[in-house]
Every structure is written in structure tokens, then in C-alpha cells.
Amino acid sequence: MIFETPYQFIAIEGNIGAGKSTLVNMLSDVLKAKKIMEEFEDNSFLPKFYENRSRYAFPLEMSFLAARFNQLKKQLVEDKLFGEPIISDYIFAKCLLFSQNTLDDDEYKLYRQMFEIINFQIPQPDLLVYLHAPIEKLQWNISNRGRVYEKKIEDNYLQSLQETYFKYMNSQTNTRVLVVNCAGLDFVNNTNDFDFLLQAICKDFPIGMNYL
Predict the structure, then answer these.
(1) Alpha-carbon distance 10 to 27, whole Å?
(2) Which DSSP state fits 40?
(3) 27 backbone φψ class: left, alpha, beta (φ>0; ψ -120 to 50)
(4) What is d(CA 145, CA 26) in angstroms, rounded to the nearest whole number?
(5) Are 133 and 14 in contact (CB under 8 A)?
(6) N or C end of the chain: smaller count of CB under 10 Å?
(7) Is residue 204 flagged as an active site residue?
(8) Is 1 a member of any domain?
(9) pLDDT truncated to tens, each residue of the chain (212 aa)?
(10) CA 211 and chain centroid, separation
């Protein structure tokens, strides 16, 4: 069966451990789409941040801001790869959402100014898919993938990020958002669950919040 999506640019988002990168890899194969994967594992500030958040939060967020901007600008704008669908495992606004939970007020104010200067240069996704999972499932996924520096992630941090994402999505009046309840879904190991999600992403959703 041939699957086609009406969207040129799809972004998959979700909390830490939601399965964003896994889903992008799976969808890109079926939809014959170019994938954009965040290169976070090369960020030397990330392990330091989980050891000492107050000291390394600002350099971490600035490094992510620069890296995400450079990657998305090159692959979405400069390369002009609009002949095929594009699927990314993050949105540029992720910079702002995470910084709200890691920076103090003065740092966040400065960071937001930098973000707003460059944000307009990055195309917005035609469809934002948010993978929503319970905190317990996120923690299980985090533990199962075995990244040492993630072992200290606390439930309240994940909960805060989750609330920040929903606040952001509800404020996006010009964006198609599809919220996927992953509590009972296993799109990695269950073919039916993946097909269910794939068929949904191939539908034409209206602007605003949509739920699956």
C-alpha cells in the first residue's frame, strides 16, 4: 500500500522519552520523506546540565538555539528540499519551551530576545504531531534507552515540560496540531498501532488542536 501525506513539512514533538526520533525514522521510510534529526548527542553541555542545572542551563540552551537554527535553516531554507515531504523530530520553538523550564527570569528574558530575532527565518510545520505519554511511561522509556546522563531526570521536570508544551500548542491559532495519546499505543512493536498512527498523519486536519 502506498501512503501519501498532504503535508510538506511535519514535525514530531513530545516530552523526553516520548519516542519522537523512533517515529520519525519509521515514518520517513514509509512516506519516502527526508528526515531531520536533532543532533543533541554531540552537545557537551548536556551531561553537565544534568549534574549542575543552575550553572550550565544558559550555555546549554544557547548551544541548542544555535545548533537547531543552523540545522533547520540549512535543511528547510537553503537546501530547498521541497520536492519531497520532510519530517523533523523537533520544532524550533522547542528552544523556547525548554528554556522556560531551565532558565531564571533574567536569563530567559535575554534568551527570548535572541530567539525572536531569528525565529521568523525558520518555516513552521504544516502539521505538528505531539506524542503525549504518562510520566511513568516516559521514565520507563528513558531508563530503557540507557543514556547515563538522563538517569537524574525527575518526574516534576517532565511534568513541567508537559504543561509547557500544552500551553504552547493551545496558543498556536494558525497551526495544525495533532495530539496523540500514547498511553495505550505501542507503535514500535505493534504494527496495528503504527498503521493507525500512519493513517492519521495522512489525513487533512483543520487548523487548531486535534486529538487522536
Answers:
(1) 10
(2) G
(3) alpha
(4) 17
(5) yes
(6) N
(7) no
(8) no
(9) 667 889 999 999 999 999 999 999 999 999 999 999 988 767 788 888 888 888 999 999 999 999 999 999 988 876 665 578 899 999 999 999 999 999 999 999 999 999 999 999 999 999 999 999 999 999 999 998 878 878 888 999 999 999 999 999 999 989 999 999 999 899 999 999 999 999 999 999 999 999 98
(10) 17
Provide the whole-model pTM. 0.91
Here the cell at position 195 is: 498503521
Would you state the torsion angle of the CA atoms of residues 64, 65, 70, 71, taken in this order, to the nearest 10 degrees? Answer: 50
Residue 3 lies in a domain: no
Q: How far apart are CA 192 and CA 9, in angstroms?
A: 24
Tell me the three cell numbers of residue 161: 515540560
| Catalytic residue chosen out of the listed positions 89, 106, 155, 193 | 89
Q: What CATH number did the domain enclosing 93 receive?
A: 3.40.50.300
Does residue 4 lie within any of the structural domains? no
Count CA atoms closer than 13 A to 209's CA, side-chain side. Answer: 10
- For residue 53, the model assigns a pLDDT of 84
- How crowded is residue 30: how many other Cβ atoms within 10 Å of its Cβ? 16
Q: How many CB atoms lie within 10 A of CB 12?
A: 27
* Count of domains for the chain: 1
Question: Is residue 181 a part of any domain in this protein?
Answer: yes
